[in-house]
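Hi V.,

You were right to ask for the full record rather than a summary. Here it is.
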Amino acid sequence: MANDMHYKDDIISQNNILLDWSAKQGRILTAEGKALQYYSQENGYPYRDDELPHQYVERGISHSMFRQWAKRDGRNDTLSSPIVGVWDRPLFASKLEHSTNEHEIVYNIQTKTLFVDLRIPRNRLCDKLPLSFEMMNNEQLRIYARTHVFGGYSKIATQSHDRRPICTRHHCLDWNYIPGKPRPRPNSWFIEKFNKDIWIESSFATDEYKQSYYTERWERRKGDDDGNGFRLALRKKKVHGDDSDGIIVVVGDHFNYILGRQLFEYERTFDSLVELVDAAIENNDRDTAIMYLNRLDGGHGTISSNWEIDCSIQPWNHGKNVFERISEGNGRVRVVVESDPDDFFSWSVYIGNTLWEIYESSIMSPSELEKVMNSSYRCRL
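Predicted structure:
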């Protein structure tokens, strides 16, 4: 009996840690909510609206703006970004709290243009959530809501006085984003390069002591060819009447994907997806919680495993071919690349019945790209 009680206490404690996971991430990122004060004109860090991470998706012009930037950056062989690659995050820290890769699994894939950043609590993965929303109990639905994946475009600039690179990320799909409730400060940070395999992200704005109020240590994952091999960035083409979106980014043997759609009615009264799901569960409205949890998915996998997903927001996608997941078809899906061979920006990529645009590709032959996307062939250029 005593052992059973200890086991139940351990489960309750673990669930409480999981339920606090996203809040803890927010506390570290914002210095317990002080980031709005730090990142302000009064503190010496003014910013423009067009630097805010959800500005372009809020205005409905993220496709046109990202495409415009990519036509400058995606085929510029001389453009150098110090963070192209596949990254793990061993440490995320502020002065009061920290989190490590013992607490969450992170796959951050960055090309010269698009990125997808995936973060899932490890205990959630170890506990093996049921393989459908309907099979989850209310607490498991709340735990499922505590995760994070987001994707969009990274713009690199250099500060004039010390030449440190600055990254500003613009999001188009974001687990934590509620339409009408955009993030109120830029997602901008310094890139402090140690060597080709390690770099530090530090906040652009500083605290009252002129110090960065959070830092993240990033380490390269094996299999990304040091960011110098195969590189591909795709975004789902905007089609009239279809509000779904998606990004696929590939560096070396690794890929990340994010898929989602916008929902606007119920959610506008909340500041985050976590708040929305918690409120729905409290009101015994499982259908609403599931509807919103099902609006976004993201994951990671490798080409050498035949484009198989090995880590996903939706655990029932583990082991699936990513193109089958995207097309939601039955059986193997063939990828077709239709092209003007002179310019990959004119290529159309069909994944099943979905149409995608290329933002960046290290493969300049449409037939070769089609070959890579339809097999486990590992391209090394």
